[in-house]
Amino acid sequence: MTSDAPLKPSAPRPDAAQVKLAHGWLHTARFLTTAPQLQHLPALDMPEIAFVGRSNAGKSTCINTMTQQKRLAFASKTPGRTQSINLFALGKQGAVDAVLADLPGYGYAAVPREAKLRWQRVMGNYLLTRPNLRGVVLLCDPRHGLTELDDILLEVIRPRVEQGMKFLLLLTKADKLTRAEANKALSIARLQAAGGEVKLFSALKKQGLDDVALWLWELTREHQPVPPMAELVPPTEGAGPDAVN
Ligand SMILES: Nc1nc2c(ncn2[C@@H]2O[C@H](COP(=O)(O)OP(=O)(O)OP(=O)(O)O)[C@@H](O)[C@H]2O)c(=O)[nH]1
Ligand SMILES: [Mg+2]
Q1: CB neighbour list of residue 236: distance below 8 Å, 6 or more residues apart
Q2: Which helix (H) or strand (E) holds 202?
Q3: Alpha-helical segments (H) within the chain
Q4: SS3 for 199?
Q5: 163-190 residue pLDDT tens
Q6: Which of 61, 124, 176, 230 has the greatest number of C-beta atoms within 10 Å?
Q7: Average pLDDT estimate for 24-52
Q8: Which pLDDT tens digit goes with each residue over 133-170?
Q9: Contact, 3 vs 180, CB < 8 A?
Q10: 235 falls in which pLDDT band (50, 70, 90)?
């Protein structure tokens, strides 16, 4: 048998009922608001989970796949498609019980240096200070591995992860890997994701959807706010009207 042999059909998972509940809950997703600047984000009580990662890693596609909606989040071949923080509400109408946040990606070469630095600072401050942020999903294309900016992000969130914030490293576009490559990517990522879980995900092959649904569901059922931290750098004065800060 080669390492690329297809998986045998697996037995139903013991938590199948929970997985079903979690998918049903994710399908309730609808657009809540978009915030071009941090101060435009509404103050919310319910748990928020942020989808972060390099430009083009598959954040928006992951949100669309998990919520079974084709165009809830803007996904595109062109890197830099997501330019504001977009929030999506989950839960029955009139009873929002969690929020997903689709964040602009980082690391896109064509973005001017000043805009890159500004976005890094904004994202760092969002991750450190957003009071209701309960979990972070870091999406990474395993063909590129974790980049320097991913490592910086891991360092930024480490204090909050140590205080109980949940962290999931999602290896995206797994359909592009052979089984052997996927196993290798998993082993490497597990070493790098200190304190977090690692999963493979493919929107194309619908791989990893149950794991992600359950992860999101379970973390939003726990009622433990993670205290916010001090800002990285105070926002600079005089940033232009379009600045995300
Ligand atoms: N083969 C494959 N392609 C994928 C998968 N997920 C996303 N893509 C493709 O990757 C490209 C980028 O996807 P997006 O979801 O827009 O990526 P993003 O991380 O939101 O990008 P930014 O908004 O620029 O930060 C698109 O062309 C998607 O179709 C996947 O699981 N498999
Ligand atoms: Mg996007």
Answers
A1: 245
A2: none
A3: 16-26, 59-67, 113-129, 148-162, 179-192, 209-221
A4: strand
A5: 999 999 999 999 999 999 999 999 999 9
A6: 61
A7: 94
A8: 999 999 999 999 999 999 999 999 999 999 999 999 99
A9: yes
A10: very low
CB distance 56 to 201 below 8 Å? no
Q: Measuring from each residue's beta carbon to the nearest atom of ligand 1, which residues come in under 6 Å?
A: 53, 55-61, 75-77, 79-82, 104-105, 172-173, 175-176, 202-204
Position 135: which residue type?
G
Q: Return the DSSP state at 30.
A: E
What is the set of domains in the chain, with CATH numbers? 61-221 (3.40.50.300)
Residue with tokens 């209701």, as numbered in its chain: 132
172: closest CA among 136, 135, 144?
144
Contact of 137 with 51, CB cutoff 8 Å: yes
> To the nearest whole number, what is the mean pLDDT of the chain?
86
Distance, CA of 192 to chain centre: 17
The pick from 76, 199, 244 for probing ligand 1's pocket by mutation, whose C-beta has the most ligand atoms within 8 angstroms, reads 76
pLDDT tens digit sequence for 87-143 = 999 998 888 999 999 998 988 877 788 888 888 888 889 999 999 999 999 999 999
**Which residue owns the Cα nearest ligand 1 atom 21?**
56
Both tokens of 163, joined, read 């205080």
Exposure letters 171-209 (e unless 16+ CB within 10 A, then b):
bbbbeebeeeebeebbeebeeebeebebbbbbbeeebbb
Q: Could you tell which of 54, 61, 70 is best to mutate to test the pocket of ligand 1, judged by most ligand atoms within 8 Å of the CB?
A: 61
pLDDT of 33 strictly over 90: yes
